[in-house]
Amino acid sequence: MDQREEDGVDLSDGQQEVDQKPTDQSVLPTRNSDQKDNSVDEWDTDLETDNATGQRQSSSRAELYLQLCRKTGTNPVSCFLGDLSEANINLNHYGLGPLGAKALAIALQNDTVVTNLELEDNALRAEGTRCVMEMLQTNITIRSLNLSNNQLRLEGADIVSRLLANSCYLTSMKLSGNDFDDSASKHLADALRDDFVLKEVDLSHNKFGDAAGEHLGQMIASNLGIEVLNLSWNRLCGRGGVALSTGLKVNSTLKQLQLAWNGFGHMEAESLGQALKQNNTLELLDLSGNHINDQAVMLFCQGLASNSTLRVLKLSYNTVTNVGALRLLKTVKNNKRSAVEEINISTVFVREEFVELLEEARQRRPALDVQYSVMSSVTRNLAAIQIFQKYFEERSESVMDFFQALDKEGTMKVSTSDFRKAVKAANIPLDRRQLEWLIKKFDKNCTATIRYSHFAELS
């Protein structure tokens, strides 16, 4: 049996009527409440009939689309009637519905111009999606398809999965926000497991849970094509998150994995860290908006310490503090093989020691970009050293001379009390908090004594 017959898509009937040009294309019928709401199956138009092929090829895409809209009583989308040389067709949020999708699919079946088709939020449901996917069995030009937010659910997932197996041309597919649950994930994972053409898949904003994580983890382990996978805004934590990490260990193609807002915590962070020890292709990992705290970061860093491919790590909107941020930065700094170029911890308020460590790390890796938050008091304290040093530079004096003047006995150390008094007496423009922070920095062991021999570099 032909795949189209098996999937219940019958596009046969009324060929002659469809091919007749409207007498006035400026006056188009519109659907009203009195019209019968025909289902897709009640409007049959076979695009594969040989005797119609020549007629269709002689008509422009716009003319054919207008004929089809007239027949179904649907309103044509004006932007689809525009520049026929445009490779990108954006029909997001137009409310096409199943019949509108079928008119569009027929008009595009033999098109050789369009490469990207955007159909987000059009209430296509399973019926309209079947028409679009059926069209892709013939159209070899469209490479990118957006079917996000179209109420596909389990039936739609089944249709996409079965017909996707017969399409060898799509390289990017967005299926976000379609109420896919664990049952739907089984269909999708099975279809993607052996796919080596699709490079980018978006399954975010669905209802995946533990079982979906296991299905998708198995898919990740065997897939040899997908490079970008978006699974954000699901519930893939727990067993599902661990299963994804297990698949990541052996995956050899995935470059970007987005797992934001999935409820990941200690267990998932540790399993991802273990995966990073073995994975040698992943370049971007998005863990934003999870339940990752400082302890989870410590576990994750066990794998990050030896990874040599990850370039971008996103951890904003977690519960990480300055402690976790420091551990993360030290791990990247100490891993000589690390490829990390960007760390997003923009919601973490860091302390002075983090900023100083970052400056030190950037001396060896100037391109390192870390996004973080900092209190104004921290910024003010960090300026203390520059203010202290600049004071002596403006007077052509040295910091060492200042300390030696206080060290009457040449012990190479001065008390913090004497240092504090000398700074105030010299009117060095440091406020009280800056001065106390500077003393704490110079006397790290809190011995009330500053050993100044190693401050020669400030001179």
Tell me what you see in this structure.
The structure is a single chain. This protein is of the alpha/beta class. Helices cover 44% and strands 10% of the residues. The protein has 18 helices and 13 strands. An eleven-stranded parallel beta sheet has the order 1-2-3-4-5-6-7-8-9-10-11. Strand 7 (256-258), helix 11 (266-278) and strand 8 (284-286) form a beta-alpha-beta unit. The longest helix is centred in the last third of the chain and has 19 residues, at 376-394. The protein is elongated. It starts with a helix and ends in an 8-residue tail after the last strand.
What would the keywords be for this entry?
eleven-stranded parallel β-sheet, 13 strands, two-stranded antiparallel ribbon, disordered N terminus, single chain, 44% helix, 459 residues, alpha/beta, elongated
How many distinct beta strands? Answer: 13
Largest sheet: 11 strands, parallel
Overall 3D shape? elongated
Sequence of strands across the biggest β-sheet: 1-2-3-4-5-6-7-8-9-10-11
Helix fraction bin? 40-55%
Quick rundown:
The protein is built from 18 helices and 13 strands.
Chain-wise SSE layout:
Blueprint: H1 3-6, H2 15-19, H3 50-58, H4 61-72, E1 88-90, H5 97-108, E2 116-118, H6 125-135, E3 144-146, H7 153-164, E4 172-174, H8 182-193, E5 200-202, H9 210-222, E6 228-230, H10 239-250, E7 256-258, H11 266-278, E8 284-286, H12 294-304, E9 312-314, H13 322-334, E10 342-350, H14 352-364, E11 369-374, H15 376-394, H16 399-406, E12 413-415, H17 416-425, H18 432-442, E13 449-451
Helix pairs in contact: 4-5, 5-6, 6-7, 7-8, 8-9, 9-10, 10-11, 11-12, 12-13, 13-14, 15-18
